Amino acid sequence: MTLNNDTAASTTAMTNDDEFTEKMYSAYVKSAFASLEKDDSLQIDTLTDKINAPIDSSEAITIPHFSILLKGLINHTSKLDDRACNNLIFAILRYKWLVVSGIDQEVYTTFIDLYAHFLTVLVSTLPKFLTEVLNKLVREFELFDSTTKSTRHHQILQKILRYIPTSINMIPQILQANFPHHISSSTGEIINYVDNLMQVLTYCSELQFSIWQLIFECCIKLDVELQNELDDLDDDEIEELINGKDDDAELLEVTEEEEEGEAKEEEADSDDEEMGEVEWVDSATSTRSIKTLASKLDNIMHLLLTKTSNSFTTEELNNGNGVTLFNTINSLFKSHILPTHFTKSIQFILFRITQYQQELADSFLVLLIDVAFNPNEIVEKRLKAMQYISSYIARAKNLSRHQIVFIVSYLMGWLNKYIIEREQETFDIENKQKSGSQQQTGGMERFKLFYSAFQALLYIFCFRHEQLRKDPSQSTSTSTSTTSSSSSEWECDIDKFFQRVIIVKFNPLKFCDETVVYIFAKLATKLNVCYCYSIIEHNKRERMLQTNGSIVLPPSAVGNFKQKQEFLDLEAYFPFDPLVLPMCKKLVGQNYVEWSEVNPDEDDDEDSASGSHMEDDDEDDEDDDDESDDSDDSDDSEDSDDDDDIDSDDD
C-alpha cells in the first residue's frame, strides 16, 4: 500500500473517534507529522477541523484524544514551526479548555495539565506565538475569578515570565487591550478581570503601577458615568434607587403589557401615548443603568479595599512592600483622580487606606498641600486639592488631634500672609472701577484660591470644633497656638482669626459656599467664636439689590456677582461627602465622621422655619425686598435647621 493510500485510509477512519484506541490515535498523530514533512497537510487539517468543531458535535475531538494530540505536540513542538501548522495552533488556542463537562474528573485533570504544559512549551520553543498565548490567557481572566479555574492561567504566566523574562514588557499592553469595557461588559466579567489582575501582582510586582492604573481608569470612567446619571436626582432619590428594592423588572414587565394593549386599542392617538411610554421606558432604562454602574463600581472598590486590607500593616510598611503600594496609589491619585471633574467615589480608596497608619495620612496630606500651595500647578488643580484637604480633615475619623491642628494652623498662616500681600489689590479694583477705567483688570475671581482656603477652614471648623478647643489640662505654653501667651480657649487663636478675617476687604463670607457659611455662622455664634449674621445679611441685601437693579451699587460690588458664579461650583465640591455605594459605605463607615456625630443640639432648631435657607440661589432673591430690610432685627432666626443640609446623606 502506498503512503497516499495509507493517509487516505487514516483520514477516512477518523470519522468516528470511538473506533480508535489510544495507541491508534497516537499513531495517527505521528503519521500526521510524517505527512507534513512531505508537504501533505491533510491530516493536520483534519485535526484542526475536529478541534474547531463545536464541543457537543459528533465531529468534535474527544478529550482523551485531545490529550493524546497534546502529548504528541509537546514531544514534537519544533515541528510546529511550519506554516501549515498555524491553523492547528490557533485552533488549540481558541479551544475553551476550562468549560469542558461530562467527563471523568481524572481525564479532565490530565487534559488541563497537558493543555497548560503545551502552552508553556509552545512559547518557549516558538516565541513567535508568545503574543497569542498571552492574549488567550489574559482574555480569559474575565471568565473566572482567581480562586477557581483561572489558577491555571497564573501558573502558566509565571512559567512564561520565568522562561522568557522580556515577556513582562508585553503584558501591560495586553492587559489594557483585554480589559472589559466598563459599560458593555457585565459586572461579573469586570470583577473577575480585576480580581485576576490583583492576583498577577502577587508574582509580578513589577506590573504594580500599570495594573493599578488600569483599574483606576476603569473606576474613574464608572464614577463619572454614574454621576452623570445621578445629576438630576436628589439625595433621597439616589439613596432609594441604589439601596432600595430591585423591583424594576416587575415594573417593566407590567408596563410593556400595558403598552401593547394601548397600541392595539387606538392608533390614532398613539403619538401622545407613545411619548409618555418612551419617557417611562427611558426612566426605567436609566434606573437599570444607574443600578448597574453603581454595582460595578461598588464591587470593584470593595474588592480593592479588601484585597489591600493587610497591605499597610506596620510589618508591610517596614519591609517596603506597603510603602511601594501606597506610593503607587498616591501617585495615581495625583495624576488621575485629582484632575478628574468631580468624582464622588473612587477617592475613598485613598480615604480608607490612608487611615491605616498615621504616616500614610501624613503622606496624603503632604501631597495635597504640595499641590494646593504650589504656584506652578494650574489653579483648578490647586482648588481641587484644597477641597480635598478640607473634606479629608473633616471626615477622616482616625486623624490625630495634632494632624487636625497642624492643617488648621497651616491654612491660617497662608491666609494671613495672603491678606497682607494682596488685600491692596481689592482697593486697586475699586479705584479702577471708580475712575471708569475700561481696562480688563479682572474681578474678585482672581482670589478664588483665598476663598477656597478660607472655606476649607470654615468646613473643618464645623466638623472639628471639639478638637480645636484647647485641652484645659495642658498649659498654654504647650499649645500649638500661634500666640502661646494668648488666653483664647481655641487652638491657634482661631476665634480671633475668624473675627478679623470675616471683615477684611476680601469679604470671604460673600464668596464661599452659602451652605457652609450659614452652618458656620450658627455654630460660631453658639460657641461664641464670632458673629457673622450682620455681614451675611448685608451681602444678601446687596445681592438682591444688584439682581433687581434697584440701585447702583458701590464700585467695589460691581461685577462681583457675575464673577462669583464662575467658581461657585468648585467651592461647593466636597470630595468625601457620604458614599452611596452600599458595600464600600459599610467599610468606609468604620473610620468616617458623620455629620450627625458633630451636629449641634437640635433643641435650638425649633424656630427653623423662620430662618434663611442656605441653599437659596442668587436668582431666588428677587422676592420680598422688605424681608431683607427687616432682617437685621431678626438675626436670631438664622439658627435654622439648615445644619441638617450640610450633608443630607448622613441620616
Automatic annotation (TrEMBL):
<dbReference type="InterPro" id="IPR007991">
    <property type="entry name" value="RNA_pol_I_trans_ini_fac_RRN3"/>
</dbReference>
<dbReference type="GO" id="GO:0006361">
    <property type="term" value="P:transcription initiation at RNA polymerase I promoter"/>
</dbReference>
<dbReference type="GO" id="GO:0001042">
    <property type="term" value="F:RNA polymerase I core binding"/>
</dbReference>
<dbReference type="GO" id="GO:0001181">
    <property type="term" value="F:RNA polymerase I general transcription initiation factor activity"/>
</dbReference>
<feature type="compositionally biased region" description="Acidic residues">
    <location>
        <begin position="615"/>
        <end position="651"/>
    </location>
</feature>
<dbReference type="GO" id="GO:0005634">
    <property type="term" value="C:nucleus"/>
</dbReference>
<comment type="similarity">
    <text>Belongs to the RRN3 family.</text>
</comment>
<feature type="region of interest" description="Disordered">
    <location>
        <begin position="254"/>
        <end position="278"/>
    </location>
</feature>
<feature type="region of interest" description="Disordered">
    <location>
        <begin position="596"/>
        <end position="651"/>
    </location>
</feature>
<feature type="compositionally biased region" description="Acidic residues">
    <location>
        <begin position="599"/>
        <end position="608"/>
    </location>
</feature>
<protein>
    <submittedName>
        <fullName>Rrn3 protein</fullName>
    </submittedName>
</protein>
<dbReference type="Pfam" id="PF05327">
    <property type="entry name" value="RRN3"/>
</dbReference>
